[in-house]
Each structure stands twice: as structure tokens, then as C-alpha cells.
## 1
Amino acid sequence: MSAPGAREGRLVDAALRCYPPRWRRRHADEAAELAALLIADGTPAASIVWSYLVGAAREWLAPRPGRSLSAVTAALLAVTCLLGLSAALVAESAPAKAAGTARAPSGPIPPTSKAASPRAGSPHQLTPCRPVLPRQVACASPVAGHWRLSIQGSAHAPSG
Amino acid sequence: MSAREQDVLRRVGEASVLVLISLADGPKHGYALIKDVRQFAGVELGPGTLYGALDRLERLGLIEPLPADERRHPYRITAPGAAALRIHLDSLERVSAAGRLRLQLGGT
């Protein structure tokens, strides 16, 4: 097993490798020495590593003369779109899984449920309806803290 | 140009202002800067924050690096840096005086 100092040094080096090459050429040696001095001073290595990681993220995102603002914006948009797409896929697969079990909730409304929000949690408020079979509509409504499921045989008027 | 427009430090962040104040009494390298800021402001500057502030101030021409002493690069404040710091501190002082005055008049 390696000495704690060596392990901390490796962590700091790994964090410094996250910086752009231009920054590393200029500051990496000095930053490693500064980290060693701070660790010797009693500063937790984790906070130093975290500070360098945040600094590296800022360096990459900061607009530079050689890197146009539009490139930075495009990178941010791409990351946002990927995250949004992943969230949408997860959200889309959740109702499909729920439909696969074909079970209406009958117990108390879980606190994480959408119906638990103040707006949807008001008594006798209907949640949006979803067709089960042709010309049949299932509606779930929270009544006195419990779900009530009703299936209507004909077309329905969606609740406002 | 208004005093507010002249104050180039109003958007650089607290860390950059603290670094500039620290350099106002002589050149320092990273470790000395962190220790000095901790001592006069009670603020713990992370090393990542420090290098971000140094880069920003250098790009603005408010500080400059001195020849490296072994692996350490000392920095010093430039004449425009000293002028910018003076303008910023004057601005802070005006705001601070207004705040104190209003607190007194408000009777809280």
C-alpha cells in the first residue's frame, strides 16, 4: 500500500490533468507544489482536489480568444440536449413499465407521486385520463389520501 | 464615463479583488497569496479559485507574472491594477457609507 502523501499527490495530479493543455503548460508544476504545501499545512486533500476540478471545469467553459463563444455555447447545448434526451427516455419508459403491471394504486398516495403536489392533491380532483380499451377510459382520483380508480364506458369530458 | 463604468473590478468576483488587495503591498506567489487572504479577510481561497483569479487579472492587465523562483511564479500588481483597485474600493466605500447611513436612519 502506498503512503498517504503519494496517494494525495496522485489525486491532485489527476485533477490537474483535467485542465486544458495551455493551462497545464503554464501552471501545472506550480499548482502541484502549491497543493503539496497546502496539504502539509493541514488543508484536506479532498478540498484541494475539488477546487482544482471546479477550476478545470471553469477553464474549459470560459471563452478564450482561440475558442469562440459559439463553440462553448454549442458544447453546453449538446450536453443539455443529451441530458434532456436521457431524462425523456427514462420518463417515457416509466409509464410503459407501469402499464405492464396493469395495477392501479390502491394504497395511500406515495409522497413522491405527482398527485402529492399541492395542486393535484386537492380533494376530488381528477388526474388526466388514459384510454384502456376502445371507448373505455380509466380515471384515477385521489380521495381522502387514497386512490380511487373508475372506468368509464363511453367518451368522457376531460377534467379541467 | 460614470464611476460605476470605470470600476472594472465590479464583475471579476470577490476572489480576484482579494488577490489584488493582497498584491497591493508587494509581489507574492500562490501559497503566500492564500495565506495572506486567509489572514486579512478570513477567506479560504481554494487553489483552483486562486489560479482562475490570477488568470483573469492577468488577462485584464491588472497583474503581471515575475520571473519564476524555482517552480513558483510570483505576481505583482500593475499600475492599471492599482488604479482599478482604488476605484473599486472607493465605490465599495460609497455603497458601504450609504448602507450605514440608512441603517442608522432606519433605527433598526
Note: The mean pLDDT of chain B is 90.
## 2
Amino acid sequence: MTISVNDIRTDLVLAHEQAWAALSQPGTWWSGAQRRELATTALMAVSEAEPLPPWVGVSSVDGKISQSLVAPRTAHDTVYRIARHAATLTSDWYKRVIQEIDQLAFVELCGIVCTVATVVAFRNAVDLEVPELAPAKIGEPSRKKPQNVVSATLNWVPVIAPADKDAAVVQAFTAVPETNRLIWAMADAQYIPDKEMVDPNWTRGTLSRVQMELIATRVSQQRECFY
Amino acid sequence: MLSWSGNEQGIEIDLLSVQAATGGAAVDFAHELVEFATAATGFDQTAMAKSRDALIACAGLAVTIDAAAVIANFEMMTRLADSTGARMQTEVVADRLAIATAMGVDQVVSRR
């Protein structure tokens, strides 16, 4: 049986469309051209059957990415590593990366990878083509830094104060509000709306909560994610 | 969350079976859901199609699409957690260590 876009819930389609379109638009710390270029590298990373090993930067391999880049090589290396080898990341790795990339730009970069990974995973699972990235929209990043950005104990990235009141994954992207909004709009549509998280009986009428958690556990185990 | 939601609903959870991709929860379509999730995290298109067709056949289209959405969500959340250095409070880690060990993730690099 073939699955078509018309079979998919509208809220899920809209959440994916919104996040996918944003990949080619100016963000908070990266331009539209930079975001689109980094998304292209993330797409390559999640699609390669034989990936580069974690210790090889994608920008160091001839022919992998363009020689005339608009985003820094370090950003491309970082995107590839997160997209394909996330479970290998360490705090020492993060400290090296933020010597070259601003911490909040790093958060936005993580959001780009998360968007690509989730849309590609969904499309592959239901056997639909991954959509083309839109042409880059001209414009500068907003560079709007929230006033209450603080260090956290539960994440190595900075977050919005008060830190560590919410779970680490919930506060992780808060220092870049637009990235945070797009990611959690997808999470609400893909998994469970935030306000329903505490209800073990919540369902959309398809999967039960236990069935959802069974899938979540299997994917997290396959990705060697301790969290 | 799997253990919690199972306990809340009185459903038996066998983490070793989840790890072995043979099911693991006494719920409908457990084996097919785990097979689908396993195939979706790999690159074998034949296995992907076979597991998708099997799930559609037993559970229907809407369940299969929502299962794909949950898979997609955790392809996102695992990267979110690992890239931002997300960690649990020490006491939570201690509480969950037995589960992590059963799932074989107690020694992974992403434990922090």
C-alpha cells in the first residue's frame, strides 16, 4: 500500500512544512544561505549508507561539499558530526567547537540538524520523497539575543533563566527562541503535545502511550542515546 | 518513559525483548512496531518496506503514519539531547541505571 501526503495529519504536515521552509530563511544567527547550505550537509550526512567516521571532518574530504562555502567549514563539520554521530559527542568536543562558533549560533545549528533528521526520518519511514530545500531567502540573521541567557548544569549549551527548572531537553534550545518554537511544534505533532505529557493514557486514537514509548525506546537505543 | 507508561497502565514491559527487537511490551502490534522502528533507523530499504507493509496490514494506515512520526521525533530528540549535552540529575540517573543496563546503553559515550 502506498502512503500519500493526503493520508498524513494536517498538523504534522504543517509543522514539517514550517520547519523545512525555515531552513532556507534567515535565522537568528545564520543567514538563509548559510542555513540552507548547512541543511544540505545535514541531508548528506543522514542519507549516506557509508558515512565518514566521527573523527573525519566533512570539509576535509575532497568532493564532499562545495569549495566556495558561505558558512564556516567548522560549522559544516559540526553539522555532519551531529547529524550522523550524535552519540559520540563529548564536552571536550563542544568546547573545541565553540572556540570557533558562537554558543547561540551552535544552538541554532543543532536545530537545523534536528529539523533535517526528523523530516528525512519521517519521509523515509512512510516512503515519501524528501522535499527539495527552497532557494535561500536573502536577508541577515536577526541576532536577537534574549536578555536572560545563563549557563546550565543539565546542558553544556546556555539556556534561558531560570536554568535547570525544566528537563534538559526542554530547556536546551530556549536561548534561541525561534529554533525552540519550530522544534517543539514538530514534537507536539509527532509525539505528544506538551500539556499531555503527564497523562499515561493520552492518545490520538491510533497509538497508545505505551506503543509510542516502545517505539521511542527502540529508536533511542539504536542511536545509543543515554538520555 | 516506557517503563513508567507501562506501569501506569498495568502493562508488562520486557526491556531485553525491546533490545532484541522482538517486541517487549504486552501491547498490540509490539513486534511490528519494534521491527518498523528498527528498520527506520537503518538503510535497508527492503526491510523498511517489509516492516511498513506488515504494520499497515495488521494495524492500519493511521497507526503506521503515527508510528513513523514517533520514530521521526526520536531521531530529532536523540540529536537534540546529545548535541546540547543534555543530562539527567544524578538521582534520576541512579534510579534509571537498571533500565539503562538492561537496554545496553549504560556504557555508551552519550552517558554524561
Note: Residues 2-103 of chain B form one domain.
## 3
Amino acid sequence: MPRRREGRLVDLEVDILGAGIELQAEEGDFYGFALAKRIADHAGAATLTAHGTLYKALSRLAERGLVQSEWEDPAIAADEGRPRRRLYRVTGAGAVAHRAETEQRTAVAPHPRTAFA
Amino acid sequence: MSAVTLGPDDDLELEASARIRHRAAGTADAAVLAWCRWYTADLPDEVAAERRAELASDLFEEREHSGAGATGSILGRAVRGIPADLAWRGARLRRAAIGAPRGTFPLAMPALAHLAAIALVVWGGFIVWRIARSVVIRDWHGATDVAELSVAGLVLALVGSWLLVVARRRAFAGLVLAVAAYLLIRFGTYALMETSVTFTAYFSSSTAQMVLLNRVATGAAVLFFLSMAAWWTAPKAVEAAQPDEASS
């Protein structure tokens, strides 16, 4: 796993926040499998993020206040005959952190020669 | 977002929710959920219930999306996630330890108990292997009940080690392991004597010392596991120390 730099997000966290913001815009919130599927679709990957990796990262983001979660109303899950979903939302702080991280990553690195100019 | 915030009894409802299986679910799903039950077994109830319910939901949704073809993906995701599962579990246990009252040793005591249980299982396995080997080569001259009690001791040691994983069963595990320790050390030593020429020679030359050693070792091991049972009989405040675990 890549070493985390202070205040920065690791690749998976950027992917989670990015995919989460998209899903949230479409559905209002998102849950684990939908998130894993969206991340894989973006990356063009055949495999989904591992369960442990995904939920550990979501737990870490929740602790930092970048996502928040609530459990789905049990009546809705019961009506559809499935287990309850844990519904996540990217918080305002999460959206800001994602934007800042994306901008830092896409910023053009200075040409080596300019460092000696 | 049609959602609810968890109440104090909702971990039971989540456990019930986690038992719902997709019609296409197979042994792979059961194995993944069993692994989850194992690594969450001694975590606080709310934290464990949330992880199990979240994983059950993920498996259901993947089956709903891909049907029977999801088996390979489900197994692959579970195996690749094992390091993260264990790291998450470790972090949760450390957090519980930080919030625990002084003198409860929420990490050291289970670790010591697991270590002792493993040592007992290894000893029992060695004894039973020696007995089995002697029987196979027709060299067993010991009493049948010594062999039977040794095998029973190993079975009890395995059951006790399994029970030890679940926090709320640790007191009972201590009792089971105390009986196992008595059988495996008291009678296991005699079984070993029947299967080892060196041990027999040593026992014959120092009988009084060996009998004393056998009784002291048996007493110490039984006392250790009984103390463990007593330690976990009284409710510890570890679980109660972090009521907001589930909200993170």
C-alpha cells in the first residue's frame, strides 16, 4: 500500500470520492457494491475492489469526515427481499478534498531546467 | 436518502438482515461470510454486526448483478481483501484497548489465552500422533483408556480454542480448556511414556520427580485456564467503553 502523505488522499480514496460524487448526483447516495462497480467501470478493470480494501477505505474516509453513512430503512430492504444497504454520501469536506487532490495531481510538474533558472 | 440511524438494539436487526441470501448464493458466499464472522467474532457487537451486514449486502448485490457467474469475483475479492480485513480488525481491537479501563488488558489477556490454547493443541496433537503411530506399528502396550482420554483431551482443546475466538464465550472456553489440559497433561504424559523408550527410561530412573512434575504441570495448567474462565465470567467494560464505534 502506498505511504500516505499528510493531508493527501491515496489512489483508492480519490477513486471512491470521485465515483461517490457521481453516484450521489444520480441516485442521491451510494452503497458498497455500486461504488465498487463504478470504480471498476472507470478504470476499465475486470475485477472489483476487494471487500476488505473497499470497506476499510470507506471506514477511514468516514473517520476523517469525508463521507457519512446511514443504514437504509429496513422496510425498503424487506419489501425488496434483500439485506439492508449501508448508504453513503460524500460530505462537503469530502468534495473539497477530492477537488484539491485532483487539482494537485493534474497540476503540470515544473520542467527540471526551470528549477535551476 | 431514506435511511435510519442505528439504535441500541439495531445490531440484532442488522444480524437478521445479514442472514438474507440471494437465490443464486452458493458455498462461496457462505465461506466469505464465515470468514467475516471469524474476524469480527471478538469485536464489539455493533461493529461486528455492521461489517457482517454490509458484506452480506455487497454479496447479495453482486449476485443480483451477475448471478451464478459472480462466484469467482466474490472469492477473488474476499481473498485479496484478507490483509485489509485483518488490518481493520487490528485497528478496531487497538481502539477498544485505548478506551478500556485500567487493569482489563483487552489485548494482552486474549493473546495470552490464545497462546496457551495453541500450546495445548500442539501438545495434544503430538501425544495423539505418537499414540496413533504406536497403534499402527502395533507397538502400543498402554491402557486403552489413556489413549481415549488423550484423544478426548485433544478434541476438547480444539473446541476450547474455537470458543476462545468469540469474546462472549471465553469464560466457557476457559472451562473446556481446563478439562482438556487435565486430560492432555495428566494422561498424555502416561501415553507418551508408552510410546517413547527414552521417556520411559527417564521416568523409570526418576519416578518420584516425574510424578511430581506431572502433577505440578497439570495443576498449573488447569489453574491457568480456570483463572481465565473466572477472568471472563465477570463482565468487562471493554465492549461498553466505545459506544460510538458503529457511527464511524
Note: The interface with chain B takes residues 28-29, 31-34, 36-37, 47-56, 59, 62-63, 70-74, 76-77, 81-87, 89 of chain A (CB under 8 Å).
## 4
Amino acid sequence: MGQNGGVKNVPNSKKHLVSASIDEFFLGIYNVHRFIGRFFKEVFMPPYEFKEIIKQCYDVGYRSLVLVSLTGFITGIVFTKQSRPSLSEFGATSWLPSLIGIAIIRALAPLITALIAAGKVGSNIGAELGSMRVTEQIDAMEVSATNPFKFLVVSRVIATTLMVPLLVLYTGLVGMLGSYLNVNSNEATSFTAFFKEAFTSITFLDISASLIKAVVYGFTIGITGCYQGYNATKGTAGVGRAANSAVVISMFLVFMEEIIIVQVVNYIRPLL
Amino acid sequence: MKEQLPDIDKGNLIICLRGLVKSFGPLQVLQGVSLDVLKGENLVVLGRSGSGKSVLIKIIAGLLAPDEGSVKVFGNEVSQLDFAGLQAYRRKIGFSFQSGALYDSMTVRQNLEFPLVRNKRNLSAKEVNDAVEAVLESVGLPDSINKMPSELSGGQRKRIGIARTLILHPEIMLYDEPTAGLDPITCVEINHLINKVQRDYYATSIIITHDLTCAKETGDSLAILSEGKFIEKGSFNDVFNTNDTLARQFYNYNFTTNK
């Protein structure tokens, strides 16, 4: 009898269309496409896991507040500090609130929040689902005639898609507050004057584009984390890989989406 | 030796496997496995580690698809069931995982409620609570209801894992290494629990193990899986009164070398 309890080694007669790695790449794309398709099918089909969605919203939203507050606040202060010397060269420090408002609302708040969420929430989802996969908890849900996809994946993707936009708005406000404190300490500008000046430069398109971006980022972070975790293999090393891939892939996708959405918004802006 | 229960229905075939083949890459784990399990029977499957025992019951549970062959359970071909059919089928089977596979983030109560409230949505809170308490009582762990899985011992985790499957009153129980990694006293408790499940729930069971004491205490019949095929089937005495090398090695290790 051989090793491995006598299992037989058979010649691997599987033929590849192009090569093993290229086939694997396209198979991966096909699997992601099926995974996303299943999400959109399951999200509208009852029964709904409302309790789990609320729990996940709490985990994704409320539990990220401290980190997002700190990052948003510091970004506001640092961006203002760094912008001041350039503007003061032209005697244009009065433009600071407008500049900060546009920068934070259009770009910094969505991008910073998405990157933080990818790091914190994406890795958490990847590791949690990956751990559940390798310890057979997901299999246990399947054999007990429940739907682990709906319970684990749909609830988490809904939570990230809903909570990231709220976190973006919150980061924007906290960032502006940080910026105001810096401006106030230098120019003694009043709170009302600062925010009035900042918001006069921000259009409805800026805010709605930011929120649309945030929805796309939230969905991307959720679905990437869930896909990596749900399909984790090869034990504890696989869990680490799932968490790592969830972060790296979702950050990469966020940047790609940022480029595309900015192009679209800049195309639309003159038309309005 | 386990006494033969009178209510094994020898005319009623519940699980019928024919010519199962399953490979993982170049490794062919199952090479044409055929097996019949009767209603009410406890069948023990013995075999070396990596011989495909767990793969076999995962195929029966519909967690893995065979490359070739037929898996008929309750007369239905499992691989041809659609999602709703598979869910209906899985309501009738229970799967006890080697590790227990308890949901880490939930208490014991939530672990037990999870399959119940999702499969029987019209139950009141009191009925759910009563069912949880009853099933915990039946596995002998009524005090663990509010504990987290991390607070339980290995044997307790396995018993809660079994309780989680029993809460749906399965007709078939699939046990994956129920006594692996447990002390002898806990092993005896688990063996008694397996027999209790057969007696109280009239469940048909397949027990995957390499613990011959467990096999002897719980099995109505035994089958040895080797080289991806069953080499011996029958009662405990039939299987071990042969000259087959693997069967003798199993017997000698469990009942001669250690005694």
C-alpha cells in the first residue's frame, strides 16, 4: 500500500486551453463573475437576514469611527498646513477653505475612507470568512440546509455598501473640522465664515459623485473580502492569504475605480 | 460488542452508492466505491488517514460532487438535485464534523438556534428555546447553553456539534471521526451518544473512524476502505476474522498492541 492511505496517483490528463496559469486566470474571472451574479440574485430573494445586516453595519460603521475620525482629522490639518505656504506666496490664503473643501469632498474623504475600510474591514472579512471556510463552519451551515452565502456574504456586502458612504460623509466633516482648527489658529477665522466659504465652492455634483464613489468602493471592498474569504483553501496559511489578498486587491480596485469615476465626472461637469 | 437493534429495516435501502470515483488533481481518492446502507443501520467505515473516508461522506452530504458514479439517498440522485431539492434533502441529514465546526462568534444557544430558526420559521421563541434545551439535555450538556465554543472542551464541542444536527431530527447522521483526539472516557461517552441517537431518533448513521473501540461499540456493520475501494464489509467478527493484512493491522493495533 502506498502513502496517503493508499490513494492512487493517476496521470493528470487534463488538457489546458492555453496554459495552466492563463486558464486559471480566466477561470478566476469567471468565478468572480459568478460570485457577483449570485450576490445580486440572493440580495433580492427572501428570506432576508436583517439582524445580521444590522450587526455587520455596526461592525463596519460604528467600529471604524475612531480610526476614520483620527485619519480624517489629521488629513485635514496636514493638508491645510501643506497648502498654506504655496497659497501665501500669491497672497491667496483666503482661498484655503475653498481649496480644502474641494479637495476633501471630491477626493480625499472618499479615497482615504475607502483605503482605511479596505485595510480594516476588508482584511477582517477575508480573515473571518477564510477561517470559517477552513474550519468547516461554512460547510456546517450548508449541510444544515441554511444558506451561508446569504448569511455571510450578502449581509457583509450590504453593510459595506451602506456604511462606507456614511463614513465618507463623516470623514469629510471631520477633515474640514481639522482644517478649520488650523486655519483658525493662523487667521482667527470664525467657524461660520470658514464653512460658508468652503461650501460655496462645493457643488451638488461634487457631493453626489463622492457618494456614488463611496457606494462603489464599499461594494468593492465587501465583495472582494467575501470572495477571498469564502474561497479560502489550504488551512491557516490560506486564511492569511485571503486577508492579505482582500486588502491588496480591494485597494488596487479602489484606485482603478477612482481613475474611471473621476474621468466620467470631469466629462459630465461642463455639461451641467 | 454492540447488540443488534431489532428495528434495522433490512428491506429498506436508504443510501445506495455505485461506482463512485473522485480525484483531486492527480490523486484518485475513490476508485469505484459501492455501498448500501439500510434504514436504522449504523455503518462504520474504517480506513487509513487520507484513504477518502471523509470525502465519501462529504459526497453523500452533497458538499462534494463525484467525478463518476451514482449517489442515491432516499431514492433520489443527490448530484441531480436543484438548490431547493438539495436544501430539502439536507434537512433530513446531520453531519458531525471532526472539529465540531461550531460557529466561533456565536454562543452554544445561537449555534443550536441557527439551523432551527432558518428551517422552521414559524416556531415561537418558546418553542425554539424548548427545542434547544431538549437537545442540550439529550447530549448531556444543559449547563453550556450560554457558553462560547472557545470555553468548551474537545468532547463538549463534538457533542454540541451533534446536538446542532439533532435539533432538526435528521433521518441520516454522518459522523466524521467522532472520537478523534479525545480521551478514552470521553470516547465512551461519544459512543453512547451515537447509539442513543440511533435509538431515540431512529437515525441511519455512517461513522467514519479509525478507532476500533468506537467501531465495535457503535457499528451494526463495518466496511474497510483501502486503495479507494471497500475491501471488507460485514459484521465486526466477519471483517476481522479474515487474513486481510490491513484488517489484521487495524485489529492488532487496537486490541493487541495496546493491551
Note: Residues 49-271 of chain A form one domain.
